[in-house]
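Help needed: design a sequence for this.
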């Protein structure tokens, strides 16, 4: 079942030192997971990344910071805007597939 985008109540641009440490731990994990998702997807000339790469990165980092667990199942990424303000559609991400075998505890200082 497709899960709708959730509103995450964390603005990572306004954090204290403790939260900055969490962000640093989790950013490496998020990059590995999103890079796994990106394998085989066509790259945009402007960024060298697939469409949705940065939306997924932001979504996943905010999800982990808010919940301290990886998402499961299929989530719909929110719509976005490209650098020309064109609408980019929502897209599904199967977190069970891209996080398979991944242990978040390795990235949270545990």
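Sure. Designed sequence:
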């Amino acid at each position: 079942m497709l899960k709708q985008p959730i509103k995450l109540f964390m603005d990572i641009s306004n954090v204290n030192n403790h939260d900055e440490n969490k962000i640093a731990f989790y950013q490496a994990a998020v990059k590995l997971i999103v890079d796994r998702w990106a394998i085989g997807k066509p790259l945009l000339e402007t960024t060298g990344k697939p469409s949705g790469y940065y939306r997924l990165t932001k979504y996943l980092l905010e999800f982990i910071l808010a919940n301290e667990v990886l998402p499961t199942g299929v989530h719909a990424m929110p719509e976005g805007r490209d650098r020309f303000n064109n609408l980019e559609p929502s897209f599904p991400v199967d977190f069970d597939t891209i996080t398979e075998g991944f242990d978040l505890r390795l990235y949270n200082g545990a």
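The CA atoms of residues 68 and 104 lie 8 Å apart.
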